Automatic annotation (TrEMBL):
Keywords: Endonuclease, Hydrolase, Nuclease. It comes from the Bacteria. This is Type I restriction endonuclease subunit M. One of its GO terms (molecular function) is endonuclease activity.
C-alpha cells in the first residue's frame, strides 16, 4: 500500500528524466539467482511470478518515495529493489546497477 504522496516536483523530475533518457518499460534482469530459502518457502511458480512483476515495474509493497527512487534508478543506472509480502514473509527482488544480475531473497537474508 502506498503511504506517501509524490510531490509535483518529483513527478515533474521523473517526466523530465524519461524525456531525456527514454522511458524504461521493463527492467533488464540479467542472470537471475534466488536463495534456496526462497524456493523452499515460495516454490518455483511464485518466484517466477515475482520476477515477472519486478520486470514489469510492479515494485510491490513499497511507498511512493521508494517507487520514485526505483524509477530514477532505472533511468540513471542504479540498483532497483522491489519488496513483496507473500505468505506472511517479505521477499526482496534486487537488480544490480549494471543490470547483469537479479537476486531474489527473503528480507531476513538481506
Amino acid at each position: 500500500m502506498l503511504e506517501t504522496k509524490l510531490s509535483a516536483e518529483h513527478l515533474a523530475q521523473i517526466r523530465q528524466n524519461q524525456a531525456i533518457y527514454g522511458m524504461k518499460k521493463t527492467v533488464e534482469l540479467g542472470q537471475v539467482n534466488a536463495t534456496s530459502t526462497v524456493f523452499s518457502i515460495l516454490g518455483k511458480d511464485n518466484v517466477l511470478n515475482l520476477l515477472r512483476r519486478h520486470m514489469r515495474k510492479d515494485w510491490g509493497d513499497i511507498d511512493e518515495l521508494d517507487w520514485y527512487q526505483n524509477e530514477q534508478a532505472l533511468l540513471m543506472g542504479e540498483r532497483v529493489i522491489s519488496s513483496y509480502r507473500i505468505e506472511n514473509e517479505t521477499v526482496f527482488v534486487i537488480t544490480g546497477s549494471d543490470r547483469s544480475y537479479t537476486t531474489i531473497m527473503m528480507a531476513y537474508e538481506y
